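Chapter review: from sequence to fold.
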Amino acid sequence: MGPIPGLSWADVFGVVVAFAGAASLLGIQWFQADAVAPAGRARRAARITLIALVIPFLVISLYQAWLAPPDSIRVGALILWLGGTVLMRSTAAIREWSSMSRPRPSRSPEPRPNELAQASPANVLVQASVEVGSSQPFGERSPGGRQRLPGFLAVLLLASVAVAPRAVVAVATQTPCERVEVLLAARNLQPVEADPVEWMPPPELPGYRLTLDGPTTLEEVAQGRKNPEESRKELARDGLVTGYERSWDGPNDHLEFAAQGFATSEGALEFHAFANRYACQFANEVFPGPRGAIGLQIRFASGKPIGEQLSWVSGKTRILVFVDHDLPPADHSRVESLVGLIPPR
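The token string follows.
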């Protein structure tokens, strides 16, 4: 779960790390221009060039999962950034060294001052003049910090632009488990109160053979799940009272109906959330269904590879409908039609 339903903390952390990395790379390039060129147009040109050198590497680093560039492109972007930056710094250092090593033109000898004319009159106290206006007021900051502030703001703006597509996708695109959180947040609760057996279709379904029909205990419900130990603890904590299951084998698929009755509606909703949060890890898709149900298309390692289920809570009972498939179906009409087999309430 994250700060809001449908947005995980992993998404938030990923965007923050990406922004920090982008700001660091851009900041390094931005402030290197101070050492590469003097102020004015030369420094602006150097700054633009240094930023341009790092952009390909930055884009590949942020969006390599989308772009999937070959190794040669990644290495080339890295060489462009580091090699170009080192070349510019080296050129600037050589230019500065050359200007410092040049011999300065000799000055003509200054005329000897008239010592008598420059002498102070007798008995006159010579005081050093102090220019009050040239001194920096106590507590006032140096202008260097104010001059760098626009640079920091520009770097943050550039980093925001670079990370913006990734942030938008993180918010707009939801994983199956994030989608489950959105549906769970609605806390859909149907008002019908009935015993678990009353949620079962009739035992005789044309073309299907009944394979299971009977009440279930807490231990049986837990053992029928993929995570029995955790399920046993959760069922006891949520107050399972009784359950019922019916299943059928048909020529092309297998059908299951199950219902678990709890002591309270809150207990039924808690187990509903627990079960869907576990199953979403193996889901290809999450979708809303009739009666406020949460629908999951799940991958299986054994048996038929695809199963679709709908589950919802009515009163103090959680109801589940399941059907398996050889391939992912084009839509969810099959599992949705099975809800219609439940006797009307």
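Two observations follow directly from the output. Confidence is low (pLDDT under 50) at residues 128-135, 138-142. The first strand starts at residue 209 and ends at 216.
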